[in-house]
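Example record used in the benchmark description.
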Amino acid sequence: MLLTTTVLMFGLSLAPPPAEQREIVQFAVSALPDALNALSPLSPLNDDEWQTAPQIGEQKPKEQKPDEQKPDEQKPKEQKPDTAEAKKPPTPPHTGVRALLDGLKEDAKNLPSRKNLYLAMIGGGLALGAHPMDTTFNVHLRSHYDIVNTVFAPAKYYGNTPEQVGLSIGTYIFGRVFDKPKVSHLGMDLVRAQIITEVLVEPLKLATHRERPDGSNHMSFPSGHAAVTFAAATVIERHLGWKRSVLGYAIASYVAASRLHDNRHYLSDVLFGAAVGSIAGRTVTEHGREMWAFTPAPVPGGVIVLVSRTP
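Model output (structure tokens):
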């Protein structure tokens, strides 16, 4: 309708019409807006609405949907918890002497676990495999150079039990005095690891009664120096992560090698000693993980062993 009327108006404007036709055309043009408003289903627009109405060919800005927003405009994604942080043992609310003693009770219950059994089997397998080389391996580490002997000399003191216990207690006291719960927790676990290590090592030494390579006594298997240093390195790794425990494991390996250089232990002694220390270190840092406990209970005519699992 609008197109036909426009064409008609354009055709009429080409030649000047007579006076009567001019009046008819003027009447038709003046009546055109009323006719368009009558035909349109929408209400007529006033002057303000005509000004704000979109012009022909003009497009309204497209509204962005939530999924079409730019990456920088979207809400930040929730960060996943660090797995390394999740593996670290949580700091207990109390790290006093009573907490230390209570922790030792839990360690005694958690010691017979599946993971510790696997570590003992690995250590035993390595020691058994190294046994044929026990009589010849130490010869390759002995040296007549003073510088080599000087390098290995401090290891026998650093890996000794009193020194290790003293360092552990010092870490614990530092954390308590300066109100640093994480440090005192680390020191508490180091002390517990040293105690558990001695509980495991000394009975084994007495049971195996193996003579040392230098013939000094029959307390060779397993190596106590290797056990206590690997126990400390394992606790540090569990608390601070493997990156910060590299130095601890390096020192533990240095101490173990010194026992071979000094001809105080066989290779199988230090390998199994390292496994024992790892067992002790993991036991005292198993906070809330799956554990297997074996508890003896008396029954009429004998005793039974109750097996329980803590998820």
